[in-house]
Design goal:
7 strands; alpha/beta; 9 helices; 39% helix; binds S-adenosylmethionine; seven-stranded mixed beta sheet; Rossmann fold
Length: 259
């Protein structure tokens, strides 16, 4: 991220990234070091092709690949834009797109597609595991749709009162202490009951986290925390490190760099 930033200006492109300029400022942080390279970039979700044109003109040596469930014809695509029709969750199609356009893996993958948690997670894990280079970047846009009641799999954000939170905290603290008690650890079923009780209480604390894109991003946070999840003393075996080098969450995008 030390290379000089090259500006991404979408003024003359038909993409909503033109209005949401903070998206572009975030992209600049990651794209600067790739700007002059033979980047292979895949974007899920083409719409009118405005963002594909923007990436083509920014990455002057890049190959830009787009996929959309609807047919898209770009008259000015040139040789450096390739488009495919199909669903983001069709892993067989993703394999053939990758084989044709990035047999050594993509440098950048952007999901600006369905914004539906179950579909986004299918393409994420497939592309991340099989078709993203080590050190490559995967960007998920508009993850906040999971907070929208009117969205396919969104649920309105539901905050809790401070008093309720405090009560919950006291309860879970008491259970956590009991879980450390060496006598209770030996009582049959006590550990299971306490763990389930604590999980039941905590489940109510972060209501919105269970739905749509928000739940999917939370799953990615779990992957980020894999070393703690599988901690040899406190966690669940088998011990392993995260597949992510880093993860950055912004107002509307999640940036994941592959380890
Ligand atoms: C927000 S638009 C893409 C905008 C474009 N990336 C840009 O910046 O100009 C979302 C696109 O995703 C497509 N889409 C929605 N669900 C899809 C799915 N399951 N698989 C593939 N494409 C899908 C829609 O047809 C639509 O063109």
């Amino acid at each position: 991220m030390n290379a000089a930033k090259k500006a991404l200006d979408a003024t003359n492109y038909d993409t909503d990234k033109k209005i949401l300029t903070h998206y572009l400022r975030n992209y600049e942080d990651y794209f600067a070091q790739l700007a002059n390279q033979e980047v292979r970039l895949l974007e899920l979700g083409i719409y009118n092709g405005g963002s594909l044109r923007l990436w083509r003109d920014y990455f002057e040596k890049g190959l830009i690949v787009g996929l959309d469930i609807n047919p898209v014809t770009l008259n000015d695509a040139g040789e450096r834009i390739r488009t495919y029709q199909g669903a983001q969750q069709d892993t067989t199609l993703l394999d053939s797109v990758a084989a044709e356009t990035a047999p050594d893996g993509f440098d950048v993958i952007i999901d600006d597609c369905s914004h539906i948690g179950v579909l986004s997670r299918v393409s994420f894990w497939h592309l991340f595991d099989h078709h993203l280079k080590s050190g490559g970047l995967y960007v998920i846009e508009d993850w906040g749709t999971g907070y929208w009641e009117s969205w396919v799999d969104g649920v309105r954000y539901k905050p809790y009162s401070t008093g309720y939170h405090h009560g919950l905290y006291r309860l879970t603290r008491a259970i956590a202490r009991a879980q450390q008690n060496s006598f209770l650890k030996r009582v049959p079923f006590a550990s299971t009951l306490m763990a389930r009780g604590k999980a039941f209480v905590l489940k109510r604390q972060h209501y919105s986290h269970d739905f749509g894109m928000v739940a999917f991003v939370k799953e990615l946070i779990d992957e980020c925390g894999m070393a703690d999840i599988t901690h040899p003393q406190f966690g669940l075996p088998p011990v392993r490190v995260s597949k992510f080098k880093e993860m950055r969450i912004t107002q509307s995008q999640a940036f994941i760099v592959k380890a």
